Amino acid sequence: MASDLTPVPINPASLPAPSGYSHGTLSGNTLHLGGQTALDKGMRIVPGGIVEQFRQAFGNVLTTLAGAGGVPGDLVSVTLYLTDIPDYQAHGKEIGRVWRELAGPVYPAMAGIGTTGLWQPEALIEIVGVAVIPDERLVRPA
After folding, report:
1. pLDDT in tens, 115-134
2. What is the CATH number of domain 26-132?
3. How is the beta sheet containing 24-27 ordered, strand by strand?
4. Which of 22, 65, 109, 140 could covalently link to 70 via disulfide, CB atoms 3.0 to 4.6 Å apart?
5. Which pTM was predicted?
């Protein structure tokens, strides 16, 4: 049997099938959440601007987190990569409402980083994170 520290991929079936990456990697109780853009199941970036892209990308992060038994309160850090920081700032209140709707009122350590582009040219945001999941909820895929 593999050690609890052996990295285990977390790839929920409800997310686009990964190729050359994993949506998450679990090592012990720590889940490293791979970068999520606003891809839907059909491998298309959702339309509607930064708020809808945040909703989809963060939803993808939370789906991966749930795949290992985690909940939003288990997030210890989140990094946002943004192609247009002023656009994100202009919609900050709406994005905050989406966060609270999906994850509740608690925020982990966070960073927002501006970038000139992401893997999908139409993507406005990519979200990565780290979570620590308590033993009693941890799901380790076979």
Report:
1. 999 999 999 999 999 999 99
2. 3.30.1330.40
3. 8-10, 24-27, 30-36, 125-132, 75-82, 109-114
4. 65
5. 0.94
Q: Are 133 and 69 in contact (CB under 8 A)?
A: yes
The H or E element that residue 130 is part of is strand 125-132
Please check the confidence at residue 3 and state whether its pLDDT lies above 80.
no
Could you state, in order of their start, the residue ranges of all structural domains in the chain?
Answer: 26-132
- Within 6-124, strands assigned E span 8-10, 24-27, 30-36, 75-82, 109-114
Q: Contact at 8 Å (CB) between 45 and 52?
A: no
Q: Residue 129 has which token pair?
A: 């994170």
pLDDT of residue 90: 98
